[in-house]
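Action item from last meeting closed. Structure (377 res):
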């Protein structure tokens, strides 16, 4: 059987399952839903927080770093390109007791991040990566620092093994690897063999696998096949926060996967929208924010394109209740609801700063405005 717990510094994560940071998704309400289904087991990471915005105390960012009183450990993911700013943000987290664990984002493939040399573009610059990790680990003191990354920029610029060794040398506590390059974006198939190679290359610290985990069985298969110490689940839980209940059951040796009826799914949808309204302190804004989740929750069910459109333009809980009440709520879980969800497209080209690939050790390509000033991806 695979390992049933994961050690992240002083924090024991049981089972070894982590909710991947996802921009606009893994806010406090969604983390609450996932934790409720898991019985509080696992590790649930905030969406991406930019270090510049945190240091400048941007209002949106300060909301995003709010944790429910029951969230333990509190886990923040930071994005940064400038070592000095990253160091300031980490020390702020420690000094003001804002979190118990810090994860660093070196995996985001979206153009607005990579064009500034951040996310999955950054590990190509080995010295810059080392400087950022050193500042973060030094500033974090007793707090564990982990990192999430991809295989590299593209098949001609693979970085994950070099980055893994640098991380170990600089005191990073654990590494999560998404088995895709930035060029793949979310297309194709995740390379689980790369996760196994990283585990062999850095046996000193835990390695977590990420990519193509659509079910609890996938998570168990990944760990058995790669020898990784835990899994990071992202798109697989979109519209399915109960997946974390499935994962707990799979690792604890019992229980069939959840197969909710549409009535049960609708109840989760209603609670999700209500939690967002409470969190944003505005019902209309909360319901509007919930709209993006409608297609994921209703995937595979016989809902109809017109009803999906109506659900996707709701602006009040009462309106949402009325529309959910019109559905055929007795529908059983459909086979079409399993499998891939969320973004599945690839990209042929990664947007990078001018001259970024000319020298993997020169940091001159990092511009003064490389630090994003807004959080959430």
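Sequence:
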């Amino acid at each position: 059987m695979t390992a049933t717990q994961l050690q992240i510094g002083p924090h024991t994560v049981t089972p070894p399952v982590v909710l991947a940071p996802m921009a606009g998704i893994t806010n406090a309400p969604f983390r609450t839903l996932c934790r409720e289904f898991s019985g509080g087991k696992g590790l649930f990471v905030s969406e991406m927080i930019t270090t510049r915005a945190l240091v400048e105390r941007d209002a949106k960012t300060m909301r995003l770093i709010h944790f429910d009183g029951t969230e333990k450990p509190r886990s923040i993911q930071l994005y940064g390109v400038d070592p000095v700013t990253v160091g300031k943000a980490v020390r702020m987290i420690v000094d003001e007791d804002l979190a118990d664990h810090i994860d660093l984002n070196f995996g985001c493939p979206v153009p607005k991040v990579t064009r500034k040399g951040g996310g999955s573009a950054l590990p190509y610059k080995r010295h810059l990566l080392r400087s950022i990790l050193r500042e973060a680990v030094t500033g974090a003191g007793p707090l564990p620092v982990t990192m999430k990354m991809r295989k590299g920029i593209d098949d001609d610029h693979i970085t994950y093994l070099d980055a893994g060794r640098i991380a170990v040398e600089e005191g990073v506590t654990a590494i999560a690897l998404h088995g895709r390059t930035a060029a793949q974006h979310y297309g194709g198939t995740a390379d689980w063999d790369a996760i196994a190679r990283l585990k062999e290359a850095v046996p000193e610290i835990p390695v977590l696998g990420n990519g193509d985990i659509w079910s609890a069985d996938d998570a168990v298969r990944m760990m058995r096949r790669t020898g990784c110490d835990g899994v990071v689940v992202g798109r697989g839980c979109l519209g399915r926060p109960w997946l974390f209940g499935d994962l707990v059951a799979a690792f604890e040796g019992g229980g069939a996967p959840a197969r909710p009826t549409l009535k049960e799914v609708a109840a989760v949808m209603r609670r999700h929208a209500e939690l967002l309204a409470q969190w944003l302190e505005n019902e209309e804004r909360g319901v509007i924010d919930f709209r993006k989740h409608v297609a994921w929750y209703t995937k595979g069910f016989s809902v109809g394109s017109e009803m999906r459109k109506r659900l996707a333009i709701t602006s009040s809980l009462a309106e949402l209740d009325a529309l959910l009440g019109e559905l055929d709520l007795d529908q059983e879980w459909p086979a079409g609801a399993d499998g891939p969800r969320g973004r599945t497209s690839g990209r042929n080209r990664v947007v990078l700063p001018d001259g970024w690939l000319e020298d993997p050790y020169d940091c001159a390509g990092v511009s003064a405005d490389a630090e994003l000033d807004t959080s959430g991806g």
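Note appended to the action item: The mean pLDDT is 93.
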